[in-house]
Amino acid sequence: xxxxxxxxxxxxxxxxxxxxxxxxxxxxxxxxxxxxxxxxxxxxxxxxxxxxxxxxxxxxxxxxxxxxxxxxxxxxxxxxxxxxxxxxxxxxxxxxxxxxxxxxxxxxxxxxxxxxxxxxxxxxxxxxxxxxxxxxxxxxxxxxxxxxxxxxxxxxxxxxxxxxxxxxxxxxxxxxxxxxxxxxxxxxxxxxxxxxxxxxxxxxxxxxxxxxxxxxxxxxxxxxxxxxxxxxxxxxxxxxxxxxxxxxxxxxxxxxxxxxxxxxxxxxxxxxxxxxxxxxxxxxxxxxxxxxxxxxxxx
Length: 299
Hints:
The chain is mainly alpha-helical. The chain folds into two domains: 3-89, DNA polymerase, domain 1; 116-292, hpI Integrase, Chain A (Orthogonal Bundle). The protein has 13 helices and three strands; from the N terminus they run H-H-H-H-H-H-H-E-E-E-H-H-H-H-H-H. It has a three-stranded antiparallel sheet. Strand 2 (167-171) and strand 3 (177-181) form a beta hairpin. Helix 6 runs antiparallel to helix 8 (184-197). The longest helix has 20 residues, at 70-89. The chain is elongated and about 65 Å long.
């Protein structure tokens, strides 16, 4: 089997069997493309089904020499393991060469967060006199109020809003659905956008159920959300480099610091594993000390 056919089959498997989003499929495909580029550069060309553990280890060394950081290497390894799991399931190979391949040791990087004051400043910087102002305020309120991924925000549907009981239904990674509570500030901002502004927007066919629309009546792109947040950060003179994910990190961190149960935060974020959520327990010592003094029965 040649590489192009193998990658095409892998993409179909990710879409049909694993129900991954287009963004995830693209990321996995890029990882296998790198392995293909490496194999194609060898004196003796290597087909996907003839690669050995030694070949994969040499590929990782090659990636390392390119200057990729350990976390990027680990992500590529994850893609390779998924690729050879697919090849094994399809009986294209009899043994998985990636089975004994070890991931590089990486340090858990603590995510950047915003203070509650910074979030208020960013929201206050939105020009509500402009037609898109109400929409942009609702975007930031929902990002911070619900801890959504940017793709979950852009794909949010009107039919998945239950604002009367303060819940929204979110379609996350792998098309998995979850219910997320939504607070009063986000509900209010959403209602203003939907009931007072969105109703006057000409909507393209097929986009009628999308919550957030651009001036042409189409759903917003992920890139627009990134640019919106970057421009607001510049307006208030915020020195941190922030993205939509910074609001998700801040949502989780502020909940944990406020004493929220880690399992509840895991459920709201849509994390598969509790270990992913545990990164938000980077609380300062004074906070931990105060928690013990306040809640421990011996104090």
